[in-house]
Amino acid sequence: MTDFVLHPQLAKDGIWLGDFELCRVLLINDSQFPWLVLVPMEDDIADIYQLDNCQQAQFWRESKRVSEALMDLYQGDKLNLAALGNVVPQLHVHHVVRFHDDPLWPQAIWGQLPLKAYSPEQRAKQVSQIQQALQAHWQVVAES
Amino acid sequence: MTDFVLHPQLAKDGIWLGDFELCRVLLINDSQFPWLVLVPMEDDIADIYQLDNCQQAQFWRESKRVSEALMDLYQGDKLNLAALGNVVPQLHVHHVVRFHDDPLWPQAIWGQLPLKAYSPEQRAKQVSQIQQALQAHWQVVAES
Predict the structure, then answer these.
(1) How many beta carbons lie within 10 A of that of residue A107, not counting itself?
(2) In this structure, what are the phi and psi dihedrals at residue A77, rounded to the nearest 5 degrees?
């Protein structure tokens, strides 16, 4: 895991919140949706089914943790979860909180709208809220 | 589980292949993509994180099984996995085999193109291939 390198596109779009046991956790810098991405810190994995059984179990524990925290924090109407990776081959799994009045409801969000970056104040607030909600689980917390 | 009723939209779009221990398995009737949907046969569940730990573990075993079978059968370039449910609230998880030369690569497929039904011959072939690939795992096999 020490050799893990985040794909440049994910590094560009995401704000690093911290690392769980298996996954790096990124907040996508898009103020239109509360949107986290989990990236297993393993090389050369493109699809979830390629994780071994133990990693896969850990992955879904971390996914559940993030899903519950997001829905609890933002009181969303629906969670959208997706592993696509057609453009960025490094395995990364989207967790997006959706609302009946969000800009794309009920469509899927991928490839529809450009990202709309958080303001510095919004960004600091989002980062701190989510880091706190998950505080029991970080192995590494990113400094903002 | 005896009270399980499939959402009418899923019943319309999907061809029932059979049931695993937890999930009903549907082949979406769209000849543009090899596309299975897993529907946990539990009432009132909208999101994966709402399954209990045991069901969730079973769900991901079934998902892995289906993912490997599809990628092995169709030799796809990428698997796309998604739980959206913004339109159909019953939890259902898409497993879509993608190819570099498919009609929407590299875009996500949801909401982009109308379904293009299989011909009766294609349909019979797909159903039988996938049922066979998963034959060790059916609790119930649908008759075609």
Answers:
(1) 18
(2) -85, -25
- ipTM for the predicted complex comes to 0.94
In a domain, residue B1? The reply is no
Instruction: Give the nearest chain A residue to B80 (CA atoms).
Output: A84
From the CA of B120, how many Å to the nearest CA of chain A?
A: 30
Q: Is residue B2 part of a domain?
A: no
The answer to whether position A2 is within a domain reads no
Q: Which residue has the tokens 């005896």?
A: B2
Q: Per the CB < 8 Å rule, is A63 touching B47?
A: no
Residue-wise pLDDT tens digits, A46-96? 999 999 989 999 999 999 999 999 999 999 999 999 999 999 999 999 999
Give the separation between CA B15 and CA A129, rounded to whole angstroms. Answer: 44
- How many independent structural domains does chain B possess? 1
Cβ(B12)–Cβ(B136) below 8 Å: no
Q: Residue A12: how many CB atoms within 10 A of its CB?
A: 10
pTM for the complete prediction? 0.96
B90-105 residue pLDDT tens: 999 999 999 999 999 9
Domain membership of residue B13 as a residue range: 8-137
Q: How far is A75 from chain B (nearest CA, A)?
A: 14
Within a domain: B116? yes
